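Lecture notes, continued. The same structure-token format from the folding unit now serves as the input rather than the output. Read the line below as a description of shape only.
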């Protein structure tokens, strides 16, 4: 809930001076009844609004769809794409129920017809929009947390050893983390560093050629006769270390990048064992005595 005496930062995207003055007057009147303070920043076109959103944090955006450099639905789409965490109230000159429903379905919090706006309606819409958006964010985060927890539990289950004759014959009977704990932790560290690099690659749109690093880890795992469960355990251990106390957005990014990485790593391990079964020479991997420059930068 919004507390009294708190400041609400609003980006008002409107190019009509008369409408700007009228809306600011309504907000000033609302301050007297709600004991809230509305800090208003004006943007007269979409370009300026996007610059403000890039440079500052806002609690809410009031958006007129008729702008000099953008009209119809485009202003909302651009605003929502750049700042999905900012609730948006759309204002138009014409009442169109179907259009209003479409905007709400796309993520707008409310739809107001300018000529029908009055102080009570505007303040109520702002308060409801902010509170509704906060609840949506919390519900979505709870859903993601539950999904991540299920995924971690599944990984833990998959990594538990199964002492069957076939497993014992193909791989070491003892899990790698128990038979060679120091080496297992080293592999977890290397794999975790690659997770960091994958996130950097995703964030900054650069290419670090991670496939070769994953192939080298797979070769070492194969030489140690690691099982797929060892791979899953290594993956889940590294993922837990990276996501503990991390921000929700970063947890989501680690989980998504990790899914791709563990599949690629498993593919290289399968290739290693296929070559071994076919009698194709598989060289013993050289364990690096020191970390690569990439990995050193992600300690």
């Amino acid at each position: 809930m919004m507390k009294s005496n708190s400041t609400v930062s609003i980006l008002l995207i409107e190019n009509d001076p008369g409408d700007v003055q009228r809306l600011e007057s309504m907000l000033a009147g609302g301050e007297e009844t709600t004991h809230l303070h509305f800090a208003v920043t004006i943007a007269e076109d979409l370009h300026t609004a996007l610059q403000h959103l890039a440079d500052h944090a806002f609690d809410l955006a009031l958006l007129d769809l008729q702008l000099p450099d953008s009209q119809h639905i485009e202003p909302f789409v651009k605003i929502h794409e750049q700042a999905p965490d900012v609730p948006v109230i759309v204002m138009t000159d014409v009442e169109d129920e179907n259009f209003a429903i479409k905007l709400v379905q796309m993520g707008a919090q409310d739809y107001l017809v300018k000529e029908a706006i009055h102080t009570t309606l505007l303040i109520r819409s702002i308060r409801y929009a902010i509170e509704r958006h906060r609840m949506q964010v919390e519900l979505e985060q709870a859903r993601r947390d539950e999904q991540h927890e299920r995924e971690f539990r599944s990984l833990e289950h998959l990594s538990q050893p199964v002492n069957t004759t076939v497993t014992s014959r193909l791989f070491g009977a003892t899990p790698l983390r128990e038979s060679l704990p120091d080496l297992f932790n080293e592999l977890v560290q290397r794999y975790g560093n690659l997770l960091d690099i994958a996130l950097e690659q995703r964030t900054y749109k650069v290419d670090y050629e991670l496939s070769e690093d994953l192939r080298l880890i797979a070769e070492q795992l194969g030489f140690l006769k690691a099982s797929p469960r060892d791979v899953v355990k290594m993956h889940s251990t590294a993922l837990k270390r990276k996501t503990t106390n991390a921000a929700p957005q970063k947890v989501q990014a680690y989980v998504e990048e990790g899914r791709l990485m563990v599949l690629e790593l498993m593919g290289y391990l399968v290739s290693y064992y296929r070559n071994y079964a076919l009698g194709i020479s598989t060289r013993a991997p050289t364990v690096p005595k020191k970390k690569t420059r990439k990995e050193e930068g992600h300690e």
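Point for the exam: Residues 163 and 173 are 7 Å apart (CA to CA).
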